[in-house]
Amino acid sequence: MGINVGLMHHRPYFISAFPSAVQMTEVPMGVKNPKIITKFAGEAGESTVEHIACYMVELGNLADNENLRMKFFPASLTKNAFTWFSL
User: Any alpha helices (H) in the chain, and if so which ranges?
Assistant: First the structure.
């Protein structure tokens, strides 16, 4: 889970915290991957409630699928929030 350093390349890579069932969940055929515009950085003054509400709106109908909600959630994080999530 989190960011690790590979033994051979010494480059950071992301290992998902989610089970493989979540990682393997696909968007239904004919539906595009959501475009996550609203990013949460975890900075003072940011509302977690507002972030989740915006995230759910951006997911649209995909928000009905719990696995897809989890799969795309890291894309809604940035800066310190993403770093925290990926550790």
Answer: 20-24, 48-59, 66-72, 79-86
In order along its 87 residues, the chain shows pLDDT tens digits of: 555 555 555 666 667 789 999 999 999 999 999 999 999 999 999 999 999 999 999 999 999 999 999 999 999 999 999 999 988
Task: Check if the beta carbon of residue 25 is closer than 8 Å to that of residue 64.
Answer: no
Can you give the residue ranges of every domain in the chain? Answer: 2-86
| Cβ neighbours of 76 (radius 10 Å) | 21
Whether the Cβ atoms of residue 22 and residue 67 lie closer than 8 Å to each other: yes
